[in-house]
Amino acid sequence: MKIKQKLMVLMCISALLCSACRNASSDKTDSQEGVVQSQVQGTVQVSSIDELTGDRFDSADLYNDFDKSKSAVVTLSDAEITVDSLGKDSVGIEGHTVTLKKGGNYYFTGSVSDGKIVIDSANEENVRIILDNASITNTTGSVIYIKQAQKTIVTVADGSNNAIVDAGDYSKEEEGVTAAVFANGDLTFNGNGQLSITGNYADAIATNADFKISSGVLNIQSKDDGIVASKGVSVKNGSFNLQCGGNGMKTTSTLEAEGFIGIESGSYTIIAGADVCKATGSIYYVNGGFTGTSGGGSSLSSTEDGWGKFGDETTTAKGFKAGGDIRVYGGSLNFDTADDIFYAENAIAVENGCVIASSGDDGFVSGKSIEIKGGSITLQKTCQGLESNEMNLSGGYLDITAKGDGFNIANGTDSYAANDRPGKNEFTRNGQGSLVIKDTCINVRSDREAMNVAGDLTISGGAVRVRGANDTSLKSIDCSGTYAIEDGQVLAAGNEEKFLVPAKAVQPVVILKYKEKQEGKSVICIKDSKDKVIVAFCIASEYDKVVLSMPALEKGKEYTWCKASLNSDLEQKFGDVQPESYTAGEKIASFTVQEGTTEVSE
Questions:
Q1: CA–CA separation, 193 vs 2, rounded Å?
Q2: Distance, CA of 602 to CA of 596 (rounded, Å)
Q3: Which residues pair with 565 in a beta bridge?
Q4: How buried is residue 581: exposed, middle or buried, by Cβ count under 10 Å (0-12/13-18/19+)?
Q5: Residue 308: per-residue pLDDT
Q6: How far apart are CA 92 and CA 85, in angstroms?
Q7: Listing from the earlier edge strand, what are the strands of the sheet with 523-527?
Q8: pLDDT, average across residues 498-504
Q9: CB 384 within 8 A of CB 27
């Protein structure tokens, strides 16, 4: 048990959180690296979104090699649009409008300043549009309008640069068309070239069926939403940059097994005025790199009457917003959101993912449960950190900074809202939740209650270090049910009049009481009878009481509580302090650990 405890503390000390998120510490030992890698990065059980959404990609979606000699070649120009002999029966040209009448491969090259592609194919054969250095602008409506087709595939030729720009006025467009690329039927983008789409009217891409990306580089700018699909969005092995006035990616179907967004591998950046990703169903993320900004970022938190839930007409500015689950398996995600980072009507699960995020509102909000297995989650700025009825944390690293509660379990609406924001998340909370922590390293800096649990709290292994509010009426750790410590290090600092101590603890609990509030660079320092430091921790803010429980505190043995402070040239920072970073001073008190709780006063 002691070895396990020491390894978990080493994990918390280490600067290595995840190779995709932070650089490794230059002086870590091999054993430290092994522990951190296994606890933080780990092995992801889910390797593809296909395991979560069903096999949405068929061979045509993945195939981007084509034979130009077997394709109808359409050459674009302002003077004249022409088609070769292979397209004489399947391609209609009227002015600068090209109509594709049946399935097959159509190769587009050249440039037109006021053109349009219409697909009107009644047969079941796929329509494939190959763009090879093609540039199409339309001044009266959409650029690619798929009136009917079983499936349309847009393939971007290797090494090519292509552009699609629609009109700002759709008064001459067919009713219901809202995007530069608008499809009735399934729509897929692939290829190894680059495609830029500008949606001046509203959306960049929209379909009433499935939308997929299997490769290629996509750059989108849109007045409203970037990508809209009814049945689902599936993205893998691609790269895109979306800048949208509305939502980055959005689904609309409420049917079972539809309305999902699935993202796998690749590299993705979305800057959205509203939600980064908004799914009526679930959101799945597997590996890859993702950066999302919503509503101008965390510095622009709202003072409006609420950010809204599903079913509301209110525009929201969340990171991932799901009517079902949010499930993250591996990968690296960075968010800067005006609203919640993750918001799920059902469950949130993160397995060995690396998340670094700031929010003008809450961090992770779930209507049912939050489960975290391994990985690294750093919430640099939030109102409330994690909020749900139930939470299960197993392995990994969490670092949370919150103006409200760090953890809020089954406590109804938020107890805090930025800028007196009245729109709080309103899930049904029965006041009988649970927070279970096993072998997890957790640091929480909270301006209210670091852990606010309406229900049971169980800590079994790992290291849980929290700082609560200056308000003496609030507790650093508050639990209405059974508070149990089965293993691990627990350190809670605050200013409350009466600390909550565990009702069940298999290891001793020590309460340290200072005469005056400690500030800034003060270090909590405990030595054993051999003058060995077993705790050196900086709270980096005001506190006058500390509750400490750890296996290294043994019943019947004597310990020394010392004054200590960070060296003058160091910035105060919440966390463990290395020997070379602080100076230990005179003894405050000696104490012998008793059965249960031992109180020590300065």
A1: 55
A2: 20
A3: 522, 583
A4: middle
A5: 56
A6: 12
A7: 575-576, 533-538, 523-527, 558-566, 582-592
A8: 89
A9: no
pLDDT score recorded for residue 300: 79
Q: Residue 329: its pLDDT value, please?
A: 97
CB proximity list for 134: less than 8 A, separation 6 or greater: 76, 108, 109, 110, 111, 160, 162, 163
Q: How confident is the model at residue 415 (pLDDT cuts 50, 70, 90)?
A: very low
**Residue 424, pLDDT above cutoff 70:** no
Tokens representing residue 88 in the block = 């004489």
Which residue, 338, 347, 178, 323, is CA-closest to 261?
Answer: 323
> Is residue 463 packed enough to be buried (19+ CB in 10 Å), middle (13-18) or exposed (0-12)?
buried
pLDDT, residue 312, reads 57
Chain centroid to Cα 358, Å, comes to 10
Residues ≥6 apart with Cβ < 8 Å to 336: 292, 293, 294, 297, 298, 357, 358
Kindly state the average pLDDT of the residues 424-450: 84
pLDDT of residue 418: 45
Give the side-chain half-sphere CA count within 13 A for 9.
21
**What letters, b where the CB count within 10 A reaches 16 and e where it falls short, cover 159-195?**
ebbbbbbbbeebeebeeebbbbbbbbbbbbbbbebbb
- pLDDT per position as a tens digit, 293-306: 999 999 976 544 44
pLDDT more than 70, % of the chain: 87
Residue with tokens 């200013």, as numbered in its chain: 495
113 pLDDT more than 70: yes
Q: What confidence tens digit (pLDDT) does each residue in 125-159 have?
A: 999 999 999 999 999 999 999 999 999 999 999 99
Alpha carbon distance 83, 119 (integer Å):
15
Average pLDDT over every residue of 582-602: 94
Q: What is the pLDDT of residue 473?
A: 87
- Whether residue 162 contacts residue 193, with contact meaning beta carbons closer than 8 Å, is answered with yes
Q: 153 and 126 in contact (C-beta within 8 Å)?
A: yes
How far is the CA of 99 from the CAs of 81, 126, 146, in angstroms? 12, 15, 10
How far apart CA 539 and CA 559 sit, in angstroms, is: 21
C-beta separation of 74 from 82 below 8 A: yes
Share of the chain above pLDDT 90, in %: 78
Q: How far is CA 277 from CA 285, 311, 349, 537, in A?
A: 11, 16, 16, 39
User: Strand ranges (DSSP E) for 295-353?
Assistant: 320-322, 326-329, 332-337, 342-344, 347-351
- Which residues have CB under 8 Å from 424's CB, separation 6+? 306, 413, 414, 417
CA 191/CA 215 separation, integer angstroms: 6
d(CA 492, CA 465): 6
Contact 84, 111 (CB under 8 A): no
User: How long, in residues, is the chain?
Assistant: 602
Span 10-24, average pLDDT: 41
